[in-house]
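Q: What structure does this chain adopt?
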Amino acid sequence: MTIRILSKHETQAILSKLQEQFGIKQIPGILLRIGQERIFLYQGSLNEKQIKEHEKEIPIERLGVYFAKEQEDGIRLSIEGTQILQSQITKNIYNLDETQLEPWMKGNEILLDDYAKSKFDDNEKNDADDKYKEIMDKNKLNVKELDIKDKLDNEKKDVDNKNNLLTLKNKSSEPSNLTLAKSVSNNQSQVMSKSEPNIGWASDFAKRGAKLDERSREFGWDKTISQKPNKGFVIIKHKDDFLGTGKASELKISNFIPKNRRLRERG
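A:
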């Protein structure tokens, strides 16, 4: 069977898919294609030119390790592929627990009940946390500033409540209302004047705070993000061991462990 070294353009296309699926940023070696779908990774000392020269002199049936299989719906990494790239894999990971490990190694699929779905890495929450940090940096908001904002909001609410109560109590007396309104206005000024010199941005903080609240709802920081199954190829992992790739749907994760590598029944 002919071995074909992938071009830089083809390698980059594979890398782009791997980055989208699993967060991979670099392929450590030369990619070769054997057949239509199977991709091998060579990490030896020969360069591309030397490989081609050897191929002309002797028939080469296999070079490197079986790395991945390219399919219409994505790249399915082999067991060796996940182990080679394990330090780069950051998303679409399914963590097996002790009860799932042996059935998986025997070639069984995983049925996704509510408990099994919880074993997916919470990648959405990680992405949301990154966006949260980015916005926090952009607006230069920190814990101390947020505490000050909460304090200002609470003091303003107290003033508003007093204003409402006093207005209702003295509704029939217009001069008294004017006096009270002036008093409330003075109280509000005192509240702002106590804090504004120290923080410098109190005048527009409410607007930025409202924007942050809106972003919080958009990215889901205002609630716990529940884990849910990722459709498509997922990396199977048990503790620190990477065990290949499965394919997740709404109801199950399909198992691709070759029959000759599956764990045999005891006895």
